[in-house]
Design goal:
Shape: rod-shaped
Largest sheet: 4 strands, parallel
CATH architecture of the largest domain: 3-Layer(aba) Sandwich
Radius of gyration: 26 Å
Order of helices and strands: HHEHEHEEHEHE
CATH class of the largest domain: Alpha Beta
Structural class: alpha/beta
Distance between the termini: 90 Å
Strand content: 5-15%
Number of domains: 2
Helix content: 40-55%
Number of strands: 6
Length: about 160
């Protein structure tokens, strides 16, 4: 090969490399961006999931009013251990049904709570599934059951008491 052919070959290889890099790094179509945006690519991913669609926080006082006014509201205790519910829980609260689809046709209000203002990843996932699959208005109890207690509201004894 002469020098001219080697220069042309080098230019072609450089162009191919540039095209490959552009394809890999383009945010909308790149393989690298797909990998970077995939939440499951790292099993040790410690990033806290978030609720992405519409839900609102509800205060303990507003929840207390809904309970006292007998409003058509489903209250779900999403604390990690069902034993917490069995010990005590917010009045009229229920454990979530084994089959979440039972709530999908609900068009009323669903209020979920956990221990505190920072819901567990499971509670966030449950809430997100409700948001995506029901026409109900979804609320998260601001401050969780701990704030409910701090505001002076009582808990109902559970089955274990």
């Amino acid at each position: 090969m002469n020098k001219r052919n080697l220069k042309i070959l080098a230019i072609i290889i450089a162009i191919i490399l540039i095209v490959v890099l552009v394809i890999l790094l383009t945010p909308t179509a790149g393989i690298l961006s797909t990998f970077l945006n995939n939440e499951n690519h790292n099993e040790n991913n410690t990033q806290q999931p978030t609720i992405t669609n519409s839900y609102s926080n509800i205060t303990s006082e507003a929840l207390y009013q809904k309970i006292n006014n007998s409003e058509d509201t489903t209250i779900l205790d999403l604390r990690p251990c069902p034993c917490s519910y069995k010990s005590s829980h917010i009045p009229t609260a229920e454990l979530p049904p084994d089959n979440i689809e039972e709530l999908y046709n609900n068009t009323n209000t669903i209020i979920i709570y956990d221990w505190d203002a920072t819901p567990t990843a499971d509670a966030i996932d449950y809430c997100q599934r409700l948001i995506n699959n029901t026409y109900a208005t979804i609320y998260y109890l601001d401050g969780g059951v701990n704030e409910w207690i701090n505001q002076g509201y009582s808990l109902e004894p559970g089955e274990g008491n």
